């Protein structure tokens, strides 16, 4: 890692940490100023984050999309960008940072443990389908994370209502109906991106391993997560589940997408381990 990349990424992390504290301040003290500070700090962190991505791009000679660290570098940028975009567009939703921002910090921390010098794009990664796959994966992860943050807002509001504190609800907190409608749109958007992620990944897998589907842990968790969010849409539009149950479902499904991206990196065997991709590819291992 270059010094510019290191310092800019660390500065982004510090900004995200400050934004996290501010978001929790908005929750604890119910002050609209706190969420404004959280949003501003997250935006400043994005600028620093963009510098880190640009520095990595220049140093490696390619857009960062390989290895754990580079996936974290761009993936966490996408997460924060989605959160900031929604918070700017819909008043009061910056409180979603109580979930999105800590998740971003933890993911950044994991990435730092995997950081290493930039490397060239090796043959397994030289595929346009992989770029499509990774791009839609980032969008999916960011969208689902923001949706989970909105679900957390809804549950927080409902708890205050059950405690009989409706007169103390902050004026800036969106009504449950508005949160529910936005949550539905985000889940639907993420569901479509998730489908493209799985389809493009299957095409890349066929070129790399000779099979569209191998029930690899990543593939299995991807399918389970996609089905989980598909059930969310079914429960919302057909079964007419309550807003509370849907919010809990959105939070639960986020665990699946986190397993897809990071949990499987801890398992002993997986075709998708970044450190091992290409190791068992016949056409790469043949003697020349």
Task: Describe the protein's architecture and organization.
The protein is mainly alpha-helical. It has one domain (65-277). The protein has nine helices and no strands. The longest helix is centred in the middle third of the chain and has 35 residues, at 128-162. It is flat. The two termini are 33 Å apart.
Detail the poorly predicted runs: 278-288
Structural class: mainly alpha
What general outline do the C-alpha atoms trace? Answer: flat
Percent helix, as a range, is over 70%
Task: Tell me what portion of residues adopts beta-strand conformation.
Answer: under 5%
Question: Main beta sheet: strand number and arrangement?
Answer: none
Number of helices: 9
Q: Report the order of strands and helices.
A: HHHHHHHHH
The total beta strand count reads: 0
Query: What gyration radius follows from the Cα positions, in whole Å?
Result: 20 Å
Mean pLDDT: 85
User: What is the count of structural domains?
Assistant: 1
Task: Output the keywords.
single chain; 288 residues; mainly alpha; 9 helices; 73% helix; flat
TL;DR of this structure?
The chain contains nine helices and no strands.
Chain-wise SSE layout:
Elements: H1 3-29, H2 32-60, H3 67-89, H4 97-113, H5 128-162, H6 176-209, H7 217-237, H8 243-261, H9 282-285
């Amino acid at each position: 890692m270059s010094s510019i990349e290191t310092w800019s990424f660390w500065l982004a992390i510090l900004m995200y940490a400050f934004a996290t504290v501010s978001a929790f301040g908005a929750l604890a003290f119910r002050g609209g100023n706190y969420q404004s500070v959280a949003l501003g700090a997250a935006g400043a962190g994005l600028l620093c984050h963009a510098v880190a991505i640009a520095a990595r791009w220049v140093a490696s000679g390619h857009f960062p999309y390989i290895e754990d660290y580079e996936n974290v570098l761009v993936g966490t940028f996408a997460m924060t960008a989605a959160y900031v975009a929604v918070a700017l567009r819909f008043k009061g939703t910056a409180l979603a940072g109580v979930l999105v921002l800590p998740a971003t910090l933890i993911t950044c921390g994991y990435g730092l443990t995997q950081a290493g010098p930039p490397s060239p794009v090796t043959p397994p990664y030289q595929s346009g389908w992989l770029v499509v796959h990774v791009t839609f994966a980032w969008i999916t992860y960011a969208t689902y994370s923001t949706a989970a943050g909105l679900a957390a807002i809804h549950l927080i509001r409902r708890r205050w209502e059950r405690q009989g504190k409706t007169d103390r609800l902050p004026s800036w907190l969106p009504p449950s109906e508005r949160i529910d409608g936005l949550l539905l749109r985000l889940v639907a958007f993420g569901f479509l991106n998730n489908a493209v992620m799985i389809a493009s990944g299957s095409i890349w897998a066929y070129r790399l391993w000779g099979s569209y589907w191998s029930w690899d842990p990543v593939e299995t968790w991807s399918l389970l997560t996609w089905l989980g969010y598909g059930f969310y849409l079914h429960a919302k539009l057909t079964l007419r589940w309550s807003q509370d149950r849907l919010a809990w479902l959105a939070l639960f499904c986020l665990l699946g997408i986190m397993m897809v991206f990071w949990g499987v990196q801890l398992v002993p065997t997986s075709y998708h381990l970044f450190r091992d991709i290409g190791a068992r590819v016949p056409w790469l291992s043949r003697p020349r």
